[in-house]
Each structure stands twice: as structure tokens, then as C-alpha cells.
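Cross-posted from the bioinformatics board.
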Amino acid sequence: QAKKVRLNYANFPPAPTFPCVQMERWKTEIEKRTDGAVGINTFPGGTLLGAKDMMDGVINGQADIGCICMAYQPGRFTVTNATSLPLEIPDAKTGSLVLLDLYNKYQPKAFDKVKVLTMFVTAPANIMSKAPVTELSDLKGLDLRASGGAAQILKSWGANQVGMPMSDTPEALQKGVVKGLFSSLEVMKDLKFAEICKYITITDTVIYPFAVIMNKNAWAKLPDDVKQVMDGMIEEQAAWTGEYMDRHVSDAIAWSKKEHQVEVITLSPEKKAEWHAPLAPITENWIKTAEEKGLPGDQIIKDIKYLIVKRTAK
Amino acid sequence: MEIIEKISEILNRCAGIIAGTILVFMILLTMSNIVLRRVWVPIRGTYEIMGFAGAVITALAMGFTQKRREHIHVDILVSRFPRSVKRAVFAVNNGLCTLFFLVAAWFVCRRGITLLETGEVSETLRMVYYPFAFVVAFGCFLLAAMLFIDLLKLFFQKDFK
Amino acid sequence: MSLALVGILGIAILMLLLFVFGMPVSFAMALVGFGGFSYILNVNAGLNMVSQEFWSVFSNYGLTVIPLFVFMGQIAFYSGVNERLYQAAYKWVGHIRGGIAMATIMACGAFAAICGSNTATAATMTTVAFPQMSNFRYKPMLSCGSIACGSTLGVVIPPSVVLIIIGLSTEQSIARLFYGGIGAGLLLCLLMLLTVSVVCRLNPEWGPPGPKSSFRERIRSLSGAIEMLILFFLIMTGLYAGYFTPSEAGGAGAFFAVVISLVQRTLSWENFKKAVMDTLRVSCMVIMLIAGAMILGKFLTITRIPFNMASWVADLNVPGPVVLAVIFGMYAIGGAIMDALALLLITIPIFFPVASQMGCDPIWFAVLITVVTTLGAVTPPVGATTYVVAGMAKESTLNEVFKGVTFFLPAYLICIVLLMVFPWLITFLPGLL
Ligand code: NA
Ligand code: NA
């Protein structure tokens, strides 16, 4: 019997969050499908590598496998980060498959030094607030906690993006330092924001792309049959994670409605168009920047839009 | 020896002035953000700038903090050693640490180069931030230099305490 | 060599470097962390880990509270605010044996209600309290012990970074956790006050009582404390009215401190510069300690000792209370060799389900392990709070500080036992929510 391979898999958010749930699922499946030829040690919660250290940490062999959120490193993953533009990706499953297709088509240089094991995205970011937000005018001057990636979108709507660590957010909301937050909705239940934010406004504007990457040397050392199993799971894992995320979000919404009487506000198609109009320059700017870097920006956006339609239809 | 001392003195004084100014700036920035958020709009990217400013002041302070022997150490046993053993222990400590921080400086520098090459920018302000990594590398280098000067003194100065 | 053995050897070498070679604590932790990590993986990985930790600790937004709070303390010191505050306190409680030490512990508790970091509390309170306690001829050992242990209250009394981290990684309401922390924090504070009282009864010269002041003298002394009270009032109001977050409170506090001393004309330009330079050195020292502890933590993480210990405990086939006792014991030992936050991040996902399965109240369990890991902040070899106090109180050695801390260990133990026997001490307040 061949010697058992041990791999260290680092992840940055706390253990119960979806990137770690998909990590544990992947670990279990790989260990099962390789008949125990591979054993995987998981390190959740940034215990081995933090979010921004992940990419270089995996390249340098501090972990064999790592999960990165590309939106945390703007400028570095230009092609794949295009999925986080306001292009109306409807849900996490579609988004995950679109991201993976995009990666496969362009094989971006940013990933030259690693092996990609899967990619997936968060569910779309939406507004959670203490006071109802039904009109664009309600957003004027509203302080919302959001990560830097959403800053441009909130600015275009006239809202204020406030950057602060997630750990400061519950208190800041309670005390009114911020009036709401802009992120995917599972936090309503997971971080109990439903206790404070009684309104959700569905905008479905932006997702955050993730990738699971592996150190090239560690990959090269794997036996061929193991490589085959891992390659075979790339798309399956992306779809599984997207589905899990979408289910998790709808559970969180149902829970928030039931336990905390949270009201969900949806925008009419006309209003949606009105909300999306001011966001167009963000995509245009991205195209300009991408083309300066020698990337076919326009084509990438067209591809994403086409892929969204194609993957949604399935 | 005296020239080296002089250079380190000047470097540390400059580092102190810059770091001190940045500390005052951090206080004013926090306060302005608190006030402006209330009466108008928050200052974009405060969170990021504070982090980078914090990195700069800590890094620049590394040299003169070491110079004043501010880093706490346990001297329960060492203080009882005979003079020669004390000198040997001191030499080993300083030698190891000099080497360590020199290499650390080099690798933090490489980290800055990676940030530069990959074109990474900060999340909110979308500005390049590799220069701050170079400042941290410089801080590690200053610390290594201070440790090394102490090591030299051990060998070249007779009146070592 | 098995990974666990490498880990244990690493700790042994750390002890050697610290206690025999007298290497600065932060450097020794970094060096051992680097060596161990490189041994297990490779030197390139080790060096990259070190450079990443330096960069991410130095540029961590949460840690900017350290220079800001320290600066607030330095301004209070150089403008003489803290001296006048302590003169007032002396008039009120100076005649009680150890009264000033008790007042200091309560001041630490009050400061804890502002600041979520125990190193920031320790650095600020040492500046504010230590010279004054020496003035009143308190034994440095007792002063340092009171400050070091009092500062750990910052983690139990909300806001608390540790409770937030537990809340985020177990998906519990942080508001309920904070309410749970209040009961435990007050109990721990009370037991520390009792400790001072008992210690000073046994050694009367450690906290010598002063003359009793008349009521009029006391009232008049309050004018000296007015600046500190205003400062405290401004920060508390700002925090609770939602003008700023706990992370911003340091900046606001430093700003108010400067403004107050400018209005009072008690701060010269010369002293302002000294305050700035002292702040830079102290925060550099503190942040280097944290960076060292983080690097060491990465090494212990990659040995998987904390994971394996936790799974071993989780699989123990013994009655519930024994499992709990083993868990708490593990946290006490783990807290001694590892940074509390890193330890919690690793072990919470494993222990938490075990505790819930045994039917423990999650808030109770979370607050109790916070108290237990708090103990780790003062115990060697990785006891950041103790090192900070020793590093700043120049007149006392680390040895003295550790001795001083030892007197307070029974207070922690009694607190833990009481919380275990009477869970309602923790769960009562959150139950009202
Ligand atoms: Na606190
Ligand atoms: Na400790």
C-alpha cells in the first residue's frame, strides 16, 4: 500500500462559516474517494494563514492548500474579480459556475504559481438596515458597514461605506455607529444581526469570488489517481458550495422573518433599473483598467454576462 | 565605532520625529472621522489608513526601542552569572537576534516586492500600499543594526557592563 | 520525531532562551516560533511566515488601540492628572490597608469597561498607577500584581475582544455574551479586592495605611480628580451613545486628554514630546510581544498539539463534570504557552459542540473559558500582561511581578469554582434580555 499523503488546508474565516463548511465537505469526500490515501488537516479561523496571507502562504508552502477571497486583494486578481462587478449574478450557484468557467477560459496569470482546486462565490450582497430602505433616497448618507470591495457601489448610491472589522460590527450597529450593513444575508442568522436589523432590501448586486488553491510542489508530488480525484471534484465542489450557500441564505431569511419579524423589501423591475443605472460607470472603469493591463476587458464582461444566462438556464 | 554610533543616532532621531508626527496624525484622523461621520460623511478609508499608519509607527520605533533596552527580558539567572559567562550569553543572544531580524527584514522586503509586482491595492482607497511594507522592513533592519552595534561594543569596548 | 515532540521541545528551548539566556521575551518567542515552523515545514515557509506575521500584526487596525490608549495614559502622567487623581483617592481610601491597591484594581475595572485589550489596559494603567503607588510606599510586588491582574479584567468585562471572537466563531449573540461577562467580571474584581485585603493583613508593610482624612478634606480633594472624571465621562458617554466604537475610543481618549491638559495649561511642549516618545517605545514593546506570541502560536498550530489535545478531550469517556474540568485545565495550561485568542480560535470549534452536547449553557461555557484563558495572560512563559507591566515599571523586576501575580491566583481559581457551582452568576443578566 502506498504511503499516506498528509496535506494541510488553511482557511481564514471562523469554522461555522460557509468557506469552512465546504472545506470540511471537500476533506471528507477526498479522504473517502481516495480510500484514505490522502489525509487532510484543516486549519479554520485563520489559525495557520490569514485572509490576505493566504495566496503567498500557499505559494511559499506554509500550507499545502488554502482558501482565498479574491476581493480582499484588489488589483491582484483582475480577471476573476470581474465577477464582483455589479453584473446581477442571481445566486451563489450560478455565480460559482460562472466564475469557474471564466477562470477556465482565461487561465489568468495571477494563478500561475498555484493549482486551482475549486472556485465559488458568496451569495449576492444585500442591504440589512435598522430603518427600511425602499428608495435610493433612503440610502443618501446612510452609514453601512461593508468591505472595501463594495465601497464604489455604495458611493454610487450615495450611501457611506464604513470599513470596520466584523468583530466591531455588532456593537457598532447596536450603538448606531453604523445604521446597517451590506453583505450576503446569512449573517442575519449566523451573527444574529436579525436582532438589530429589522429590514432587508434585496439588491442582488455584487458577489465575492473565492478560490481554493494548492501549492504546485505539493500538487506535483501527488499520485496520479489522487490528482484525478481532485480534478474530478473541481466543478462538483463549486456547484455544491453554491447550492449550500443559497440554501443557507434562504434558511437565514426564513429564520429572521420568523424569529425576529424581519421585513424583506424587494424592488420592482423599474426600480431595479433605476438602482442599477448609477452603477454602470463602475464596470466601465474596470474595463478601462483591465485594458491598460493588456486584458480584453470588454470581452471578459461580455463573457460573464453570457455565462450568467447560460448557467442560469441550466 | 563613533561614526556608526552617530549614524544610528541620526537615523533613530529622524525615525522618532516621523513616527511621532504620524501618531499625532492618527489621533486627529480618528477624531475627525468620529466628528465628520456625525455631522457630514465619514472619511473614506480611515480603517485602512489607521492600519498602515500603525505599521509605520511601530516599525520606525523598533530601533530606538531596542537602543533603550525597552524589550523586557528575564534576568533572574543571568544577573547571577559571572562576568565572562554573561558576556558569552549576551554575544549569543545578540548574534542570533541580529541574524534573525536581518533575514526578517529581507523577507518583509520581498513581501513588499510581491505586493508591487502583483499590483495589489488596498480595499477601499484602491491605493498601492507596498511602500508601507518597505517601511516595516526598514524597521526590522534598524533593529538588527542596533543589536549589531551592541554586539560590536561588547568586543571593542572595555567598559562593558 | 513526532510533531507533538517537536512542539514540546520548542517550548523547552523557549524556556531555556528566556530564563537561562535572558533573551528578550518577544525575540525569544519569535525565534523559537520561526525555528520550529521551519523545522516542521521548511526554512522558506518559516521566513515567509515570520515576515507575514510582522506585517499583519504591525498593520492590524485592532491593535492601533494600543498606541492610542498608551498615549492617553502618558498625557495623563506628564500633565500630572494621574498624580492629582491618586492624591484624591488617597484621601478617600488611603487609610485602609492596601486601599490604593484596591482603588487601582477598581480603576483597572473601569478602564476595562472602555478598552477591550488587556495589554493596552496594562500599559496605560502602569503609567497611571505605578509611580503613584510607589509614592505611597506600596511594595512594588503588590503594585505590579494588582495592575497586571486588574488589567485582565478588560477581557471579561465588556467590551471584550475575546468574547467577540467566541461569539463570531460559535454564532452566538455578542450582546448576550457581553451581559454574561459583567457578572463574572464583577465577581473576579471583588475577589481581587479581597486578595489585596488579605495579603495586606498578613503583611501590613506592603500596603501601608495613611492618615485618615476629614470629610471636608475629602470633598476638597475631588477637585484634583475632576480632569480624570471628565475624561472618563466623555469616553463612556461617547461609547454608549454610539459616537464611536471601542476601537476608536483610544483615539478619542487621547484627543480629550490632550485638550483637557491644554485647557488646564498643565502640559508643556517638552513634556508633550516626552509623552510621544514614551508612547512609541512602549507600544513598540507591546506590539513586538504580540508579534512574538503570534509567531510562536503559528508553530504550535502546525504541530497540531492544540487540535489533538482538544479532540482527545472531546473523545474522553468520562462523566461530564470531569470532561469540563479537563477542558478548563487545558485552557489554563494552553493559556500559559499560547496567545489566548489563537488558542481559542483553534479549540473552540472542537470544544463547543462537546459542551453543548453535555447540555451546558453556551453563554456560561463561553464566559467561563474566557475567565480561564484570562489567567493565561498573567502566567509565564507567554504572559503578555505581566511582561508589559514589568517592562514599564522600571523599578521592579519581572521576578517581582510574577511573584505579585501569584498572590492573585487563588482569586482566579475561586472565581472559576464559584462560576461552576453557581452558573446563574453568569446567566442571570443575559436571561433578562
Ligand atoms: Na473590556
Ligand atoms: Na500565558
